[in-house]
Amino acid sequence: MIKLNWIHHLHGLLFVLLFISGLSLYFSTTRTWFNELQFPLVSFHLWVSLFYGIIIVFSLRLVFQYMAKKPYIKFFNVWLNISFIVIWILSGLIMYFQGYLPTTIGNGAVTIHGWFTFLFIPWVLIHSAGHLIKIKIPWPPWWRGKAMLPSTVSENRLERRDFIRFTLLGVLFLFIGSGIKWIQPILNVAGDENKRRGYFRIYNVTSDYPRYEDSSWSFTVDGEVDESLTLTMNDLLRLPVISIVDDFHCVTGWSVRNVEMKGVLVKDLFEKHNLTPRTAFATAYSGDQVYYDSFTLPQLIDEGAMLVFEFDGQELVNPQGYPCRLFHPGMYGYKSVKWIERLEFTTERRRGYWQVMGDYDLDGYL
């Protein structure tokens, strides 16, 4: 009994940590706040999930033994939790390994993971109200105790009032869960056609975006190069402009397929301006003065890295990195530095923002 009490309290603590960290990852405001605090929220969520899964597996036998003589509501609570936990674990695993799976499966896992989180909120509220502030939920006596089942229930004959009651309860749960989910509007910069291929979740590491007028943005290449170079947007547009259609993948599990991107190859920029780096390492800096990531020279020159200024025939919007961002077709989105202002060549390769803050892979290949 003492062991189960400890398991119950540990379950509650881990669930609260997962719930809060998961919601914080979903909402851009809280995600940004944790980034500014330099707290590795993604890694924290993953490690707590792993520990939670281990606790669940090792406690199931004890829990079901204890439940053998308990009221029906206890069984419902246990099975509801297990069902949601299984769905969260499976969808989370798909999100984690989404680079090995089709895009539609990865995007579906992201959607399911989020929806089931918000749909669980009503039950969390009811369960918490019953335990913490002793609110008496008007459950039927046979549901709260081990009393004999009514004939309509034991014979599976629902009366009209039962049908109406369960229907209204289901609608209420959906309304509360989905209503909370859509309190936070999601920026969808794509048109109707793009909605069918996914949409961009906008992440940033500061609470604001850089604001540029066309005349104020510039891009500089300096450091270990024979001669530094600074280009305005007009200078950039004088270079060969190309369009590619590619998928944009985020390491958190979502993707946008078949995005048309227009921009300038880093290779063409170097060739047209006779840039000769004296080292093989470069760091790309964002105009937010916080974010940066690093590359090798072959990754920038030989693998199709671009300076992009249009998505799907429209110039970038501010949250997407207006007026210009980096894009590498073979790497996750965290390598595509938004609001790029500078490319500095260094004698040693720096670890990027998310390599320091989140232990992300330095190269970020898909």
UniProtKB/TrEMBL annotation:
Keywords: Membrane, Transmembrane, Transmembrane helix. InterPro entries: OxRdtase_Mopterin-bd_dom, OxRdtase_Mopterin-bd_sf. Residues 209-354 form the Oxidoreductase molybdopterin-binding domain. The chain crosses the membrane at residues 12-34, 46-64, 76-99, 105-126, 163-183. This is Oxidoreductase molybdopterin-binding domain-containing protein.
